Amino acid sequence: MRFAPVVISAFSLTTFTFPINAQAPVSSTLQAPPVAPVRPFIDDYRGIKVSDRYRYMEKLDDPAVQSWFKGQDDYTRSVLGRIPGRDRLLARIKELDQTVPQVEAIRLPGDLYLVYKQMAGENVFKLYRRSGLNGQDTLLVDPEKVKLGPAAQSKGKNTIWGFATSHDNKYLAVCIIPGGSELDGELHVFDMTIGRETGDIIPRVGAEAWEANWLPDNRSFVYGRIQQLPPGAPQSEVRQKFRAYLHVLGTDPANDKPVFGYGVVPSISVDPSQISSIQIPYGSNWALGLVNGSVTPNGAYYIAPANTVGQSNTPWRKVADMSDGVTGIVIHGDDLYARTYDGAPRYKVVRMNARKPDFRSAEVVVPAGEAVIQGIFAVQDAMYLQVLDGGIGRVFRVRYQTNAQPEPIALPFEGSAWISTDPRLPGAMLYLTSWTKAFRVYQYDPSTTQAADTKLQPAGPYDNPENIESVEVKAKSYDGTPVPLSIVYRRGIKLDGSNPAWLNGYGAYGSSSSPYFDPIDLAWFENGGGVYATCHVRGGGEYGEGWHLAGKIATKPNTWKDFIACAQYLIDNKYTTPAHLAGEGGSAGGILIGRTITERPDLLAAAIDVVGMSDTLRSETTQNGETNIPEFGSTKTEEGFKALYAMSSYDHVEDKTPYPAVLLETGMNDPRVAPWEMGKMAARLEAATSSGKPVLLRVDFAGGHGSMGGTKQQVYEKLADEMSFLLWQLGVPDFQPRQ
To answer: Which domain holds residue 395?
Structure first.
């Protein structure tokens, strides 16, 4: 089960003057950030020449490049640290977050729970063992006390990325990553009965496909490990030739042999760019082999008896091919239940026999409907469905019998609903939240048909704020497509265009932006923010695979054009005006926000680009580049080049253009979006903008991909910087710097 929840550098100035007007340029008496020299490099894409002014930044180990990043960050921290209200905002963020522990948990047989908890005031989540819902917690894993190898130690603070228990609940495999560096993770094994490490330590466990799956013998498990690149090999190959390995407790991991994946099974052809893994459901006699493209929802599935994994003649048999659109398979006895978008863009569920699987003749168990089937879970009493219905999360139960109809489970409130199950147990744990209600953990009991609050997550004073409310609307995009828009706003605001508004979006990989509330959000509304909105653009999964395909490769422009339409909706309906509107995107959402400000620089007063993809023509050369080709395309094809050029905000920045104020953020340990993408984008915007508004580059030298793998203090500092930057630029009086 995976859970995912940035360092301050002071720069002293003898003279530091801010403008009183948020729209005015920074005073010339404020020392400027270092200027990046222009050294054009010309790329030739089948006769089309593209100039890259800052190609040299891709050599991140160059001392001059490192010095430039350091100077940019020093300047940014100085500017942000002197915004009036920033320190007060940081204190309030801490106060809102530290009233109660943050808790998630999974249920195990024997009335045991693994509790993933961060106490108020603690910097990282720790892992505990609990007997019974009302039992005492016994500490199992404190990541800050786990000793990693020398290479990993230099990256930053340790955090838990995920964990998996043996079938008898004696052993626990834990993936720990340092400083958000997902490619430097290590897998450590603990004896749960005594709370100590066994000494089994496996390096180079990439966080993307690390997951340990224990064999029924409870002494061995399969896991994913990235390859050791030879000196001089391109970084784009680090995620290539992925394999699943078998480890036996007490043996040297260096001798672990590959059991599935690239070049392992002669009868199964695996492309070097594909990810391979093995899944062994608890209580099942079967193992599933999965081959997919990492960023693609569908995969090719194979099945074999679990007790044959690791043998030289494991009888793998194909269940479904990539073309079958299968995105997940669960097992109950000898029945395989597959979630697929084959002929059903919003998904359906089909059933096959594990002994003779044949996808083409599979029986439809749950037909496609208007709602999107997001996940399926097979447990002791029934199959449970996680469904997205018009933006609202719902849960259904389907009995194991022919022609059984999905039975809706009554939830305490509407919002988001996530499911956690154990195949050996009846019922399900439900994680619920909404735009205006804090996260709670419920347990559904099929014998009572009730979902009861487990009290695992203690109630807090800010769980149900009365001063904010939400509404769901649809904005008409440029081509007439209605785009869902979720608007959360301070109760009682006037629709006169004066409200500071913060609009965010993502739109990639078929990932949905689900309702979620964190008490920290109140800091925005308490300090002058009036609106926080989420635009559910094409490229996401709000309407299933069809919505995803409508914002992918050649159709990617729909993503930022939908975002522009949502921004225009807020303006037209007088929630805000361009002078009070900010936009944000992160990671793949960097395409969304980058192309919004380059296509419509007049639309926003400010923008935040967090670890964003911006130089998409060059992203293919990075550690994560090859795996992203199915989502964004490749410059090796004419279609791919055209699509990537269209979505490259770096290549669409124009000189002498009045761009909005922009805060760009990166982490030096980021393996997903190379730090130089944000560096090149910042340099280009600094040189091109004529608005006089700041372009700031915030660099976390001990951080990774945004907040992933970050400590609580890093998250606090990051949020305080972002909110104070926006409140400054959107004209909130208490955040206007004075001389």
So the answer is: 370-459
In a domain, 141, yes or no: no
Angle between helices 63-81 and 675-688 (to 10 degrees): 70
Mark whether 668 and 704 lie in a shared domain: yes
Residues 351 and 374: their CA atoms lie apart, in Å, by 17
SS3 for 165?
Answer: strand
Say if residue 642 is in the same domain as residue 534.
yes
Count how many domains the chain has. Answer: 2
Span 618-633, pLDDT tens digits: 999 998 888 899 999 9
Q: Does residue 255 form part of some domain?
A: no
Pairing of strands 317-320, 326-332: unpaired
For residues 419 and 550, membership in a common domain is answered with: no
Looking at the structure, do residues 482 and 585 belong to the same domain, yes or no?
yes
Q: Is residue 215 part of a domain?
A: no
Average pLDDT of the segment spanning 720-733 = 98
Q: In what order do the strands lie in the sheet with 275-279?
A: 275-279, 286-292, 299-305, 317-320
SS3 457: coil
User: What is the separation of C-alpha 345 from the centre of its chain, rounded to a whole number of angstroms?
Assistant: 23
Total residues found in the chain within this entry: 739
Spatial CA neighbour of 82 closest among 730, 732, 728, 686:
728
Q: Which residue has the tokens 């002058």?
A: 528
Per-residue pLDDT tens for 402-422? Answer: 888 999 999 999 999 999 999
Given a cut of 50, whether residue 20 has pLDDT beyond it is no
Q: Are residues 582 and 703 in the same domain?
A: yes
pTM, whole model, 2 decimals?
Answer: 0.92
Confidence category of residue 208, pLDDT binned at 50, 70, 90? low
Query: Per mean pLDDT, which range of 205-209, 551-555, 567-571, 576-580 is the poorest?
Result: 205-209
Query: Could you count the other beta carbons within 10 Å of the beta carbon of residue 96?
Result: 18
Greatest alpha-carbon span in the chain = 78
Same domain as 624, residue 490: yes
